[in-house]
Amino acid sequence: MPVEVALRAVRVRYGPLEALHGVDLAAPSGRVTVLLGRNGSGRTSVLHALAGLVRPDAGRVVWRGRDVTGLGVHQRARLGLALVPAERAVFPSLTVDEHLTLAAPARGGPAREALELFPELAALLPRRAGTLSGGQRQLVAIARALNASPRLLLLDEPDRGLAPAAAARLHAHLLSSTAATGRTVVVTAQTLPDTLTGAAAVHVLHRGEVIFSGEPAEPRTAPDAAR
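Above: the chain sequence. Below: its structure as tokens.
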């Protein structure tokens, strides 16, 4: 299976703290990859290294066979990468409509993909994001990223604050859209949702190291996954 993006022996430090200890992992092209682990396991640091928010102290970030370790966030975004962080993912002063329109201005308005996936947003279009609930803001952030039609989509705990029905809809859409568009998705979660068992690969992180890599059915029985 071809690889879209990978970390090769990546180490990431925040001051005296090393968050990733020589991490090796890969995400297959045109599929969904899930990063599992508890808070502090290194999942978010992996996404930040992939997105260019942090530069590794050692190792390489390889995207489509190209070493992009030295590229910044905006350069990777121009190449087709979109990141939805777990927090502060919207601009409070902008309306929902502005968020969706700015993501793809040539379309002249919110994309059908976003509103079909999250019909709840239709009634919120004129509202400023700062007036929304946490779950509503998450919907806006995810919809904005989808509206940009990224080649590589990184989602940090996208289920946080979402109703179960909305989360299930999102997971089904991610799995189907990757097959239809060739988009690659990397998503983090603390535990593997039943609605993401169709993912291509799972990596389990623990204290900055990958302790398991395999298919979605395996982590539940892998001896190290519960450490």
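The chain has two domains: 1-80+150-217, 86-149.
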